[in-house]
Known about the structure:
Layout: H1 3-10, E1 18-23, E2 29-35, H2 38-46, H3 53-61, E3 64-69, H4 73-87, E4 102-106, E5 116-119, E6 127-129, H5 138-148, H6 169-172, H7 186-200, H8 205-220, H9 224-242, E7 254-261, E8 268-276, E9 279-288, H10 295-310, E10 316-318, H11 324-338, E11 343-345, H12 350-380, H13 382-391, E12 399-408, E13 411-421, E14 424-425, E15 431-434, H14 443-459, E16 471-475, H15 478-491, E17 496-501, E18 506-509, E19 512-516, H16 523-556, H17 564-574, H18 577-581, H19 585-589, H20 595-606
Parallel strand pairs: 7-10, 10-11, 12-16, 16-17
Antiparallel strand pairs: 1-2, 1-3, 4-5, 4-6, 7-8, 8-9, 12-13, 13-14, 13-15, 17-18, 18-19
Helix pairs in contact: 1-2, 4-11, 8-9, 10-11, 12-13, 13-16, 14-15, 16-17
Amino acid sequence: MNILELREKVKLLPSKPGCYIMKDESGKVIYVGKAKILKNRVKSYFDESSKTQKTYALVKNIVDFEYIITPSELDAFNLENNLIKKYMPKYNILLKDDKAFPYIKIDMAEKFPRVQIVRRPKRDGSMLFGPYVTGIPISSLMNIIKSAFPVRWCNKDFGKKKLPCKKCLHGELGECLAPCSDTNLESEYKKAILKVVDFLNGDTKQVKKNLTIKMNAYAKTENFEEALKCRDYLAMLDKIDDKIITSLTTSKNIDVFAYAENQDASMSAINVMTIRAGQTIGETNYALENVVGSVGEILSSFLAEYYANTQNLPNEIVCKQFDEQTAELASMYFLDKYQKVVKITIPQKAIKNELFEQAYANAKEYAERSADALARRKQLTSGALERLAEILNMRSIFRIEGYDISNISGTNNVASMVVFEGGEPNKKLYRKFKIKSVEGANDFACLQEAIERRLEHLANGDTEFGEKPDVILIDGGLGQLSSVQEIANRYGQNITFISLAKQDEQIYTTTSNVPISLPKRDYALRLLQRVRDESHRFAVLYHRNVRSSAELSSQLSEIEGIGKGRRQELYKHFKTIEAISSASVEELAAVEGIGPKNAITIYNYFHK
Length: 608
């Protein structure tokens, strides 16, 4: 549809809450938004009003749109978040779930609770402290707890193990109350674990006192190594105390959010300041590219994604850039989704306003730095794709799949499929092929099988392998490319097939016998090299795993009583035959399905 047709379609929209879904000429979803009144919000994209550079870029690519009516604005908020996760639109906020910041977890429902470091914690009712983003090394914090509190650090299951049992070394040294040796210590142990909770909530006085006593005792006995450790711990506690924001009237958990753009508004960023128990435990910046919407819309969408990943809602969220309506909607969202009341504060003065201004300054500075980094990245990704499309005489390229074969003397033939989208690897879409129809060393035939299986999935509408690629890259020269051309023609999927010869780094196409030679620093060539090298790496890794599994299975099959199921469990646990052969009877017996009797048999086999 052209702009006039889109304007006519807007007139048919209802004046109700809901979500709208914008699509480009290929039918791909490029933006999802929510609205209290659908008609008014969608109309704003296509009217004559002035628009930001990012909004204009979005509108220029819209060819059609759909909408979904919801019972309320809150339902639209929930639906928008789900649709963004489903479609991963280019112009929405897409937080990668790769920042698994550590937390300290204490499960008070556990008998004799442990103090554990966890990433991506579940909402199971446990006490969580964190996330420890920057500034406070969580390993040092755990060492302080170990040094100052006599709680257990073992993984003993008190619901299954026979108790009491002999004290371990930590129990003998007095570093642990050793509840495994005396089940009547529950009351005393609970007091110790509650002191850990107080410490994690900011009370460092008692810990400092205990560490000072220990440091002096170590010094008197000339155990200077341990004395220095205590000194370093005390210095770290001083740093933690320095982070306490004394102006806060409460010691509640608070997150501060601020959004900022760089000078030409080409890049934006959000800064998240994490305050726990009244002290700043870290700040994180998130660069946002191509994000469309008002500041309130961007921040509310960001909050939904951010807390889906961090798992730990604060008591209060501080953000000066919310209006009252957006703040109320966000608060309702948290109550509805997580059953927790989260206060949304729009600060005007005092300490919370100062915290927001600090977060805003950090976001602004990060947006400026990210714009430079983005320009360099674009040359290697979207810029390289535009250049490659020009070279191959294609309108556009988004998805490239790379294939390679790996074997040793024709044994354990495997193939790899890697996927680059927007010029960057999408490892969730990588696939592996165990070649079934080829015996011996015949890379051409192996490549044909892998490509045929891929195209067959595509022809059958099977989405297991993802969307149709724009380009399929074969590792090799004209011979490798010719070997799959017949199969490609048979399926007729309108996919451009090319190959990259490693020796001269020349690009071969199915339209000409003359290769394309590009300068070594050409971004299109460098992108293809990344795809080719990644497909090779992935194929070799898969072949190594298959070969190791085959060798392991072959050797273990000689052991009496160790069938296929037990071999798989051993391989899953130890990974290599060397690890199994060097394992103790106890370690072998701990593997599921093995037990003491089989463990002795396996041990004796390797220690004849």
